[in-house]
Input
Amino acid sequence: MTHSAPPTPATEPAHHRKPKSGYKSRNWLHRFDNKRVPYLMISPFFLLFALFGLFPIVFNGIVAMRNWRLDDPALDGWAGFANFERLLHDEDFWNALVNTFGIFVLSTVPQLLIALMVANLLNRRLRANSFWRVGVLLPYVTPVVASTLVFAIIFARDNGMANWLLSLVGFGQDAPLDWRAYKWSSWIAIATMVNWKWIGYNALLYLSAMQSIPKDVYEAAAVDGAGPWRQLWRITVPMIQPVLIFTVVLSTIGGLQLFNEPMLFEENPAAASGGSDHQWQTIAQLIYKVGWKDLNLGYAAAMSWALFLIILIVAALNAVATNRLGGGRR
Amino acid sequence: MTATATRPRKRSLKNIGRAPQDTRGSWHTYLGLAAFLALSAFPLYWMFVIATSDDEAVSQIPPSVVPGDQLMENLHEVFTMQQVYFAASLINSFIVSAAVTASTLFFCSMAGFAFAKLRFPGRDKLMIVVILTLTIPNQLGIVALYILMGKFGWNGTLVSVIVPFLVSAFGVFYMRQFIMQAVPDELVESARMDGALTMRVYWSIVLPAIRPALAVLGLLTFVATWNEFQWPLIQLNGTPFPTSMVALSDLASGNYVIYRRVLAGAFVATVPLLVLLLLGGRQIVRGIMEGAVKS
Output
């Protein structure tokens, strides 16, 4: 991809140069310009990141070790590991952990597989090339809040479109499925929303990697008699492995922090309970509920630290596993 | 009939040994893509159908897929609820997204330029720090960030949903990559020989040269900020003028939700992004294909 040509060098007219009397101050200025200005130019990023990115994560650790309630400011002493101990015996937390993993698996696996298929389709010489590429991004630009509200109607028990489609193929004609009532069905509904949103985005990531695969590899494969399907699995997929790992890690981080879809799938989003019996309450949602509904910020902070650790572990495991799966052959 | 039967075989013979990207798309390809596109667009389309219909359309069996004629009535209802609540929330969304986008473009291009073209001790190590921060989900300090905002007295204000997003590590990274390729070293050097100070070089030479990258980063940032939900919900829930995403979840809360009204609002809040996709779709595609890591 070529970028636009740089403009012609700006040549300062000679008369702009100052007379010799100002030589000393200009010298100082240029030294300052050389030595200090680079740091000044990068400092806004580091200052803002330190204050609003790094500091909160560290401070979160301190909050997690304290009692910190919004409704009882007097109760603010050191709590030690009490919040974490409570976490270990908190059924809601373990339930949310199971839900988060369930939805995460149901969304990540199909998401990446279908994205691979779509990328494979896009990786051709196509008419109206950009139309297709821009088209697959429709879900990406749609606000989750808006699309989830639509899906909430599609997955309604009575007269929802999903149930209507199921009834067409003969399921649940007498008793329509109550999607929100069970773990498995609510997980599928939420995973569908996540998949819908992110397949196109991942497909574009894969497409960019696919297009940089050297073409002679395919010639060599054809000599060995590999058809398109074998080419996809034996050449394309192994050769885009770095991007595969990247998307796996990315969707792990995103999937374990899932918040918007479970929040808005609720018939009354303000409840933040994840269903009548917390069928689909995720950890991020539980953190919100504990922190801003129950007003127990200390405990919420402990939960987000736990979530952080879980994300780190799962992302690392994922990266290793994907590496093994794809890299063993080469 | 026989002619059409032999032609595909010929073509597939011709394609043997070709890389997929050199192979012309077959009708299967177009069919697959069209099906995928239809599924991608359907929820949006259905949002529009309900936004234009009366109350029955939500629960009609079989579902009606034809837009109704109630759009104006529904919009009128959304916009007149609680006086100016929804209209103000849209304006707030614009303010927040524009502020975050402008700031991200300025600070990230400046830092990207310094990392790409200036020499200073510690540069490469600092760049590694930037890349490492890419992997930290900033949602993890959310409780502490809320307390911090409270100390500053910003809870419940728009400032609190702008300030944490003023810069992004991805922005710095992306700008650095682009500037390294798009701005020749000689250009920077010659401008400095002529006496231009670094900021001047940045402003009059680098910025004009990286307009395409500014467009990409700007579009991605605007879309992401507009769609942000969790943090604005924490900060602005219950305030009279939140952002449009919080306002929508508010409209959808309660015991008796009028979906045609909620989805009319959702549709209005989606239209700006659809316009952006229409105008800058290629740029957004390119930005993502060059490895966007927008979380």
